[in-house]
Amino acid sequence: MCALTPHSRAEQESVYGDLSGLDGLDPARRFWARLTQGRTGMLRKTGCRFDAGNAAHTSMPTRLAGYLERMYAVAERLADSGVGAKRGGR
Q1: How would DSSP label each residue in 6-48?
Q2: HSE-up of 30 (CA within 13 Å, CB side)?
């Protein structure tokens, strides 16, 4: 779902607002968009993050791909754990 969330000013603007009526994965998608599309990587409204020309060290597509790649490693670690799990096993 994160990989399919468009990076755009319109998308970034749309993710703010009341989350109480949402179900499924949409609250998580909006959380993702707030963190990755805001200028400071915070949940509050800060404006749209963008990279301008050669001044950027990393392009937005490359940056977003890096975020997604790291999420897979975290998901694998979480899948191997559980509430009250001891280190090295379930």
Answers
A1: --SHHHHHHT-S--TT--TTHHHHHHHHHHHHBTTSSSS---B
A2: 16
CA distance 28 to 40: 19
Q: Report the 10 Å Cβ neighbour count for 32.
A: 20
CA distance 60 to 68: 12
What 3-state DSSP class applies to 77?
Answer: helix
The model's pLDDT over 30-53, given as tens digits with 9 standing for 90+, comes to 888 888 887 776 677 776 676 665
Whether 54 shows a pLDDT value over 70: the answer reads no
Q: What is the pLDDT of residue 55?
A: 54
